[in-house]
Amino acid sequence: MQIQYLADRPDAIPTVARWYYEEWGHQDPTNSFELTCERLSGRLNRDRLPLPIIAVDESKVVVGTAQLRRHEMDIFPDREFWLGSVYVAPSARGQGLATTLVKKVAELAVEFQVKELWLQTKALDGGLYARLGWKIVDRLEHKGAKIAVMLRAMGV
After folding, report:
1. What pLDDT, on the 0 to 100 scale, is given for residue 144?
2. Is the pTM value of this prediction over 0.85?
C-alpha cells in the first residue's frame, strides 16, 4: 500500500469524487458528481491546504482517501484544521487502511505545524478515532445527522 497526494494522480479524481458524492455529497441538492469533480480538481495541492491524499494498492488502484483541510464545520469558525473525507473502498476495508490514512493526515498536520486537529464522525462513541487517541469534545445534531466532534492535540 502506498499513500500519495491526489495531485500526483489526477486520474483518480473521478473515483474519489464518486466516493465523496455517494457517501456525503448527494445529501446536498445543489451538489452533483460533476461539481464534486470540479472542486477536487481545484485541490490538487502538495504544499498547502486543502491537502487530499489517496491510498493506492499494489496494482496502482486507488482504494482510499482522506484530507487535511481548514474550517470543515461553519458552526465552529474558531476550529481551523480538520481531518476529513476519510473513505476506504468497500473491497479494501478491514485491512487497517483507514488507520493508515488517519495517521498520515496527522503526520501532515505536524508538518504544517497544526496544534489542534478536529474531525466529525457519525460514530457517536468515536469508533476508530477514539481508538487512535482522539477525544470527543461535542455531540450534536448537524445538518440532520447526529455526530461527534473530536479533537487531537498534535503536540507541536
Report:
1. 81
2. yes
